[in-house]
Design a protein that fits this description.
There is one protein chain. It is globular and about 60 Å long. α3 (about 85-95) crosses α10 (about 310-325), α11 runs parallel beside α13 and α12 packs across α13. It has 13 helices and 17 strands. About 50% of the residues are buried. A seven-stranded mixed beta sheet has the order 4-12-11-10-7-5-6, with helices on both faces. The chain has a four-stranded mixed beta sheet with strand order 1-2-3-15. It has a four-stranded antiparallel beta sheet with strand order 13-14-17-16, covered by helices on one side. Helices cover about 35% and strands about 20% of the residues. Bound molecules: pyridoxal-5'-phosphate. It comes from Micromonospora pallida. One of its GO terms (molecular function) is transaminase activity. Belongs to the class-III pyridoxal-phosphate-dependent aminotransferase family.
Length: about 425
């Protein structure tokens, strides 16, 4: 079932050195399935790294990339602009609420976090208040560059270096299951209020609408709306990280739409290009951008990369928006996600399963131990459905293009895997 290579010069990140060789090698992907080097096909239950939201080998996305490659690959984003990036920025302004009109394009979710933090901190500098404290979730994940990594308290992100500004992290006070109540929202808000009031005025609160890599923790109803109010009371910027949740993953275009709020800054990646090319974005409100004309040396944002807003990636980003609208992928995410969650919840009767939770096409099966999660996850992969298990949680997040038949197949295979593991 796995394809091994005895030696490899490729150093893959996040993979223990001792496990680099002998790992799965994927050679092809079509629609919602991937094939390994030994010719086994799997139903893609994880959308690659949650980014293949339009499925694999989509002809319209390939065509958009091809056409742009032939016209203009890219050009210096510091001194010039081009149509694909201009169009993508204006389309994001149209689908984002309120005054979220100003987009900076980058290449990865981590870069989007980096840009968001720099914009937020520079904003406070621009208006003559030196706020620099950031508050976030201990179990949040915002990326792996130096600043981004400092925001997370997850064990796998721990680094030897400390943050160049104060960060206060709020730990989850209860299990994900216990949190999904009205009292859960009260407790969480009280903890954020405490964190905000415990120090100098906070520059920003940065959270995900659903804690993705922290275990697919669905936050209690009303929490984000109350967090918005709390930030407003303290003049603190609310940065929402939509890298995991954005572009339909939770059954709405953006995760924050479930609570009808507007953040001050929003970061996006993964689904923005369907994983076809590296692309990410940070969008801020017009009043935030306006302060950058007051920036002392008037150089605007001092953050950016050579390939930021790459023309081919941006062209694919525009095509993703078309495909999502034409194929009604946000709606499909809500429909198939509800079906998956309803059926997989039945697994809570297994002694190995302690919680099944989800929103749209993000589902987590929490097992009674990391060993049980590994046994279930490995059995699912052996049966032909690709899922991820990490720290006791099996993560299921298929492409938004999943069909009703594939959803049924996935439910069957995962349910069988729980039986096999028990
Ligand atoms: N933010 C969130 C919520 C994520 O889930 C991730 C990656 O999984 C990132 C940021 C970092 O994105 P990238 O891996 O593209 O740097």
């Amino acid at each position: 079932m796995t394809s091994s290579t005895s030696t490899s010069s490729l150093w893959r990140a996040w993979t223990p050195i001792t496990q680099q060789a002998g790992s799965l090698r994927i050679v092809e992907a079509r629609g919602n399935r991937v094939r390994d080097a030994e010719d086994n096909w799997y139903l893609d239950g994880v959308s690659g790294v949650l980014n293949a939201s339009c499925g694999h080998g989509h002809p319209r996305l390939i065509e958009a990339a091809n056409q742009q490659l032939q016209k203009l690959v890219h050009y210096d984003p510091m001194v010039s602009s081009h149509d694909p990036a201009e169009t993508l920025a204006s389309r994001l302004a149209a689908i984002l609420p309120g005054e979220l009109n100003e987009t900076c394009l980058v290449n990865s979710g981590s870069e989007a976090t980096e840009a968001a933090l720099r914009i937020a901190l520079q904003y406070w500098h621009n208006i003559g208040e030196g706020r620099n404290r950031v508050i976030t979730f201990e179990a949040g994940y915002h990326g792996t560059t130096h600043l981004a990594q400092q925001l997370s308290g997850l064990p796998f992100t721990v680094s030897e270096w400390s943050a160049p500004f104060p960060i206060d992290r709020v730990a989850l006070p209860a299990s994900p299951r216990a949190l999904r109540t009205e009292e859960g929202a009260d407790t969480l808000i009280a903890l954020f209020a405490q964190a905000i009031e415990a120090g100098p005025p906070a520059a920003a609160v940065m959270v995900e609408p659903l804690l993705g890599l922290g275990g697919c923790v669905v936050l209690p109803n009303g929490f984000l709306a109350r967090l918005r109010q709390l930030c407003d009371q303290h003049g603190t910027l609310l940065i929402l990280d939509e890298v995991f949740c954005g572009f339909g993953r939770t059954g709405r275009m953006f995760g924050f739409e479930h609570e009808g709020i507007t953040p001050d800054i929003v970061t996006m990646s993964k689904g923005i290009s369907g994983g076809y090319l590296p692309l990410a974005a940070v969008t801020v409100t017009s009043p935030i951008k306006a302060t950058f004309t007051r920036e002392p040396i008037a150089r605007g944002l001092r953050y950016g990369h050579t390939t930021g807003g790459h023309a081919v990636a941006s062209a694919v980003g525009n095509a993703v928006l078309d495909v999502m609208a034409d194929e009604k992928l946000v709606e499909n995410s809500a429909t198939q996600g509800a079906l998956l969650l309803d059926e997989l919840r039945k697994l809570e009767s297994s002694p190995l399963v302690t919680d099944v939770r989800g929103l749209g096409l993000v589902i987590a099966i929490e097992a009674d131990s990391p060993e049980s999660a590994a046994a279930i996850g490995n059995a699912a992969v052996r049966s032909g459905v690709m899922v991820r298990h990490e720290r006791g949680v099996i993560r299921i997040a298929p492409p938004l293009t999943i069909t009703a038949d594939e959803t049924t197949e996935m439910i069957q295979k995962i349910s069988d895997a729980v039986d096999v593991a028990a």
